[in-house]
Specification:
0% helix
Length: 54
């Protein structure tokens, strides 16, 4: 939790969103629903290795 009141959930997949409710599943966890006034999603925000030299 940050001072602004934001909660960050890393390594979590979101598989459904209805109004203010988001269905999520953390890596290695159990699916759950989260309700929030505002939701910010960053799809595919993960590092990827470079597969060629240079």
């Amino acid at each position: 939790m940050y001072a602004a009141g934001a909660e960050v959930r890393l390594n979590t997949s979101a598989w459904g969103i209805w109004d203010r409710t988001v269905a999520i599943c953390p890596s290695g966890g159990h699916a759950q629903r989260v309700t929030a006034e505002h939701v910010l999603m960053a799809p595919a925000a993960r590092p990827r290795p470079i597969v060629f030299p240079g």
